[in-house]
UniProtKB/TrEMBL annotation, chain A:
Keyword line: ATP-binding, Nucleotide-binding, Nucleotidyltransferase, Transferase
Protein name: Sulfate adenylyltransferase subunit 2
Record bears the keyword Nucleotidyltransferase: yes
E.C. number(s) listed in UniProt: 2.7.7.4
PANTHER family: SULFATE ADENYLYLTRANSFERASE SUBUNIT 2
Any single biological process term in GO: sulfate assimilation
Gene Ontology molecular function, alphabetical: ATP binding; sulfate adenylyltransferase (ATP) activity
Family from the record: Belongs to the PAPS reductase family. CysD subfamily.
Domain Phosphoadenosine phosphosulphate reductase: 30-255
Coiled-coil annotated spans: none
TrEMBL record, chain B:
Keyword field: ATP-binding, GTP-binding, Nucleotide-binding, Nucleotidyltransferase, Transferase
CDD domains attached to this UniProt entry: CysN_ATPS, CysN_NodQ_II, CysN_NoDQ_III
Record-linked Pfam families: GTP-eEF1A_C (PF22594), GTP_EFTU (PF00009), GTP_EFTU_D2 (PF03144)
Enzyme's top EC category: transferase
Name of this protein: sulfate adenylyltransferase
Protein source organism: Pedobacter cryoconitis
Residue span, Tr-type G domain: 1-215
Length: 301, 416
């Protein structure tokens, strides 16, 4: 026995690479769900480390709500070009046009909930048996209990009471036809770990993560980017602010924080000192105490 | 900075969730909006202070019933270390969850209620810690505030525990008197117990040594995936991708591939774009060999001078994890790292009464039962004994009918 240890980022990285390679080894048709956010960008970096100089043994899949920040889409397309990997896009607009989902109405309308249907349809259409995602256990208390290999039934549902025990570093990916597994390689990373890794690896990110000037309105005490996707009325006062985003979701449900942090070092300092958790800037989690648990049971990530 | 993974054993009644909540709270690991949600919750302590236990209750049923059902993972960090906590339920019906949490932990915290001392549950939790071979154990004697912070109470419980633990194979035991509710000796050393000369719990967690098995005798790398770009430029590239389970590999080491028994020499070690001369336990690497031999997922590369055990008949401790009892007439799948094979339970040697530690004869294995069995595998396994090398001495059983993980195996002996 030696007292030598890996540095924490090396250990987290090695664990994530191990999980990604297990996905490649255990499944017929995996996919990597790519949102354009920093967590899925980190997954892509880890996939490079797991499989290069070979190709990824899975395509990237993006569920496009149509309400994205343009900066995210630009980043996605440049990244796919650089990697030379395959991208599949599922459009929420198509689900709406096909009548599979109905667009929400009212001031707080968002397409966040609708994307679950598009996701499940995309999984079914391509026959994906494993979907790799960038969720982390520190984000939310339902996620804190989810396995790294999380089995979903044919309706995409998560059943917290039927979770398989996950022992040592052995992952059981056996499933019945119609089921699929959501795999979370960065389960054990915190928000700060992700940022420290991005800095260490000198990874690029969509520009909205860094402080920039933007027209904003205030909704439910949160700062939102003014956009055609927000149902705005005369009560909404547009102000010009210097902001950045801590997570990248839809423009209709991702709140900005006022910030001068335009360099990664400043962001890490800001997060270290922060008093609001990352998902605190997500209106979709604020609905009820069990909001995330309910959405996961319905097939959400 | 490195990572310490620990798990907590105890029930809500022992103040387990409060202890974790206290660690998070006093290290400033709870953020403003989480704190706000906490304050808005209806659950308060009798004196009106925030019930810190809420921080670790995840699922709706757990909040409703005020219990922990499943393993919840929590994270916090100090300047010295990153911590991963597996918060596991303490009740006997959740033994499998505790086994799960313990399987990856470097350290176990066992809570003892100062008012009750060593009870049946303490014995059970300590047994599980020894069964899973967790390296360090901290016995937190909690609720010292309700016993007048008495040194005598602490000493009596400590002595009783040591007597009980003599029957177990525990490696490193530390006793700390605490009050999770009041915060004594959790993050800061308590002024209420000047007789206690040891460190606070957090101090201990920050400084305890975390060891990885780097013994060359146990150089093992299960192959997860073969990287073959098959492009013109990389026509002959053939890399064996995997995570080193234990030990270390160096360039020019002679290695054997099991089960085939073919051997070759390490030509190159890759970690993405780096090509180090050596790689050690815990690292995910790609190995290249000098000879072109047939290797695929499920094979394991080992140092040729130190071969593992090889057998189809193995004596193992089994923890049963499924609602459906074990059936020795059917074939299960056995997953040993990247190797999947079929397996039958040949014989049940005994079951352990985990409250009294007595061995009992039995013909059946039900949910949460633990005991010794003999298994027969379809393919020969290349393994180490769990006590010598946990990472290569453990496996899971999968029921092919449901695909559920139904058993945890720890290899104890080779059957001649």
């Amino acid at each position: 026995m030696s007292k030598y240890n890996l540095d924490y980022l090396d250990e987290l990285e090695a664990e994530a690479i191990h999980i990604l390679r297990e996905v490649a080894g255990q499944f017929e048709k995996p996919a990597l769900l790519f949102s354009g956010g920093k967590d899925s960008i980190t997954l892509v970096r880890l996939a490079e480390k797991a499989f290069r100089p070979g190709k990824f043994p899975f395509p990237l899949v993006h569920i496009d709500t149509g309400h994205n920040f343009q900066e995210t889409i630009d980043y996605r397309d440049e990244m796919v070009e650089r990697l030379g990997e395959k991208l599949i896009v599922g459009y929420v607009q198509e689900s709406i046009d096909n009548g599979k989902v109905i667009e929400q109405k009212g001031k707080n309308a968002s397409r966040n909930a609708l994307q679950t249907v598009t996701l499940l349809d995309t999984i079914a259409q391509h026959g994906f048996d494993a979907c790799i995602g960038g969720a982390r256990r520190d984000e939310e208390k339902a996620r804190a209990k989810e396995r790294i290999f999380s089995v979903r039934d044919e309706f995409g549902q998560w059943d917290p009471k039927r979770q398989r025990p996950e022992l040592w570093n052995i992952y059981n990916g056996r499933i019945h036809k119609g089921e699929n597994v959501r795999v979370f390689p960065i389960s054990n990373w915190t928000e700060l770990d992700v940022w420290n890794y991005i800095r260490r690896e000198k990874m690029s990110l969509p520009s909205i993560y860094f402080a920039h000037n933007r027209d904003c309105i205030t909704r439910n005490g949160q700062l939102m980017a003014a956009s055609p996707f927000l149902n705005m009325d005369e009560a909404d006062v547009v102000t010009h602010r210097k902001v950045r985003f801590r997570t990248v979701g839809d423009m209709s449900c991702t709140a900005a924080v006022e910030s001068d942090a335009d360099q990664i070092d400043d962001i890490i300092e800001e997060i270290s000192a922060s008093k609001i958790s990352e998902r605190g800037a997500r209106l979709d989690d604020k609905v009820s105490e069990a909001a995330m648990e309910d959405r996961k049971k319905g097939g959400y990530f | 900075m490195n990572i310490l993974k620990f798990f907590t054993a105890g029930s809500v009644d022992d103040g387990k969730s409060t202890l974790i909540g206290r660690l998070l709270y006093d290290t400033g690991s709870i953020l403003a909006d989480q704190l706000e949600a906490l304050q808005q919750s209806n659950r308060k302590n009798d004196d009106g202070t925030i019930d810190l236990a809420i921080l670790t209750d995840g699922l709706r049923a757990e909040r409703e019933q005020g219990i922990t059902i499943d393993v919840a993972y929590k994270y916090f960090q100090t300047e010295k270390r990153k911590f991963i906590i597996a918060d596991t339920p303490g009740h006997i019906q959740y033994t499998r969850n505790m086994v799960t949490g313990a399987s990856t932990a470097n350290l176990a915290i066992i809570l003892v209620d100062a008012r009750n001392g060593v009870v049946e549950q303490t014995i059970r939790h300590s047994y599980l810690v020894s069964l899973l071979g967790v390296s360090h154990v901290v016995i937190c004697i909690n609720k010292m505030d309700m016993e007048g912070y008495s040194e005598e109470v602490f000493n009596t419980i400590t002595e009783n525990y040591k007597k009980m633990a003599a029957k177990l194979n525990l490696q490193d035991i530390t006793f700390i008197p605490v009050s999770a509710l009041k915060g004594d000796n959790i993050v800061h050393t308590s002024e209420n117990m000047p007789w206690y000369k040891g460190t606070s719990l957090l101090d201990f967690l920050e400084t305890v040594e975390v060891t990885v098995n780097q013994d060359l005798h146990y150089a093992r790398m299960p192959v997860q995936w073969v990287i073959r770009p098959q492009t013109e430029a990389l026509h002959d590239y053939r890399g064996y991708a995997g995570r080193i389970l234990s030990g270390a590999f160096k360039v020019n080491d002679k290695v054997t591939v099991l089960p085939s028994g073919n051997s070759s020499v390490i030509d190159r070690i890759e970690i993405f774009e780096q090509t180090p001369q050596e790689a050690t336990a815990g690292q995910s690497v790609t190995l290249h060999l000098k000879d072109n031999i047939d290797i695929s997922r499920g094979d394991v590369l080992v140092n040729s001078s130190y071969l593992p055990q090889r057998s189809q008949l193995i004596e193992a401790d089994l923890c049963w994890m499924d609602n459906k009892p074990m059936d020795d007439s059917i074939t299960y799948f056995l997953q040993h790292n990247s190797k999947l094979t079929k397996c039958k339970i040949r014989e049940i040697l005994h079951k352990v009464n985990i409250n009294t530690l007595e061995k009992e004869e039995t013909h059946e294995f039900k949910l949460n039962d633990i005991g010794r069995v003999v298994i027969k595998t379809a393919d020969e396994l290349a393994f180490d004994l769990y006590t010598e090398n946990k990472a290569n001495g453990s496996a899971i059983l999968i029921d092919g009918r449901t695909n559920l993980t139904v058993g945890a195996l720890m290899f104890r002996a080779i059957v001649e």
